[in-house]
Predict the 3D structure of the following.
Amino acid sequence: MSLLIKHGTIVTATDQYVGDILVEGEKITTIGSDLTMAADRVIEARGKYVFPGGIDVHTHLDMPFGGTTSADDFESGTIAAAHGGTTTVVDFAIQYRGQTLHHAMDTWMKKAEGKAAIDYGFHMIITELNDQVELEMDALVKQGLTSFKLFMAYPGVFMLDDASIFKALLRTGKNGGTICMHAENGGVIDVLVKKALAEGKTAPKYHALTRPARAEAEATHRAIALAEIADVPIYIVHLSAAEALEMVTEARDRGLPAYAETCPQYLFLSYENYEEPGFEGAKYVMSPPLRGKETQDRLWRGLAFNDLQAISTDHCPFCMKEQKTLGADDFSKIPNGAPGIETRMSLVYDGGVRTGKISLNRFVELTSTSPAKIFGLFPRKGTIAPGSDADIVIFDPEKKQRLSAKTLHMKVDYNPYEGREITGVTETVISRGKVVIDAGTFTGRAGGGAFLKRNTR
Ligand code: URP
Ligand code: ZN
Ligand code: ZN
């Protein structure tokens, strides 16, 4: 199967030019002007942007959490991702205490196999570290699972102590893996949550009020300090607070390999959403929580000046009906997370590029190239170049879309951006040479995606 994409405006992290792309099999083979080769299909892309497929390195599909399971599985979640211009996800497998990392990997491989419609990889969440687990870390890195998520929050469930965190960091110094950190001070938060509940404060907004920005900043600082002592890079996930960003900026200014991502919810939503009437604030219960509106500009500045290197989604959807309501009388029982896998590219294009907060090249870098580089996928993924996988998005920069749970494809009964109009819509998506979204219609198949063995640093 071959495809010829004609006259599109090809945009990478560094370039923007009008050209043609020839795809043969799963790869991009030729880029040039006025290519005349015969192809099975010619796609006219004049007036459209041609981006490398989006890479979302933070998703939670089919994830058990708080007595329920995230509403999208690998089929519905990856189809929704494709609709939104994402062709690769890196999801999180979870090692529960008493279990091996290999058991977790097998479990998550089974969840994805035959279901994922786009390519996927895994980070491994480690909740218990011992000598055996350290050996397993090495083995997983050799198998292409090259990053690990650790938690400084959720005591008794996911949280690791500093000694375990430090040991895991040291291990990645030997095996070339990368530690991703959920940086919030879980001990402090636990005390504040118990105090709030004892005072009868049960509404969703207390989720945010018991997770102060300084608790995120403290943990971010500690995580970076531990990585500095271990002499390894660190990647802070879902950074939301300006105070935490200051810690990353300070470290980077000192030349440390500290990296961080933020997510669209922290760029477009704010604490005010928790004040919505009734139980509506539960829609936005996620950790870390949404911050004050003034934080948004600080995050955009961090993205523009490379203090933040990636925009991922932390897609972790729970329906309002029957899932978020688990915490109807107690905010601490509301499952943490929100949907976003489908809306990332359009939201960031509309709210970032069109407003002049970031350039078009930086948009591609933040949503595709830089995550590919940090997580061992580049240059196979994350760019448009001969030899790279033909993961390509044809994007109409003028088309408008009104975001709504009814018309989006995520399997969740609300959308945090309900009614928001965005300009800039994914039209056609190619995943390893196959058209999976054709003028807005899904034409791929569940199981069409493959597990990605990622490289070490
Ligand atoms: O609230 C969130 N972020 N839920 C998903 C789990 C995590 O910590 O990423
Ligand atoms: Zn997290
Ligand atoms: Zn997450």
In short: The radius of gyration is 21 Å. The mean pLDDT is 98.
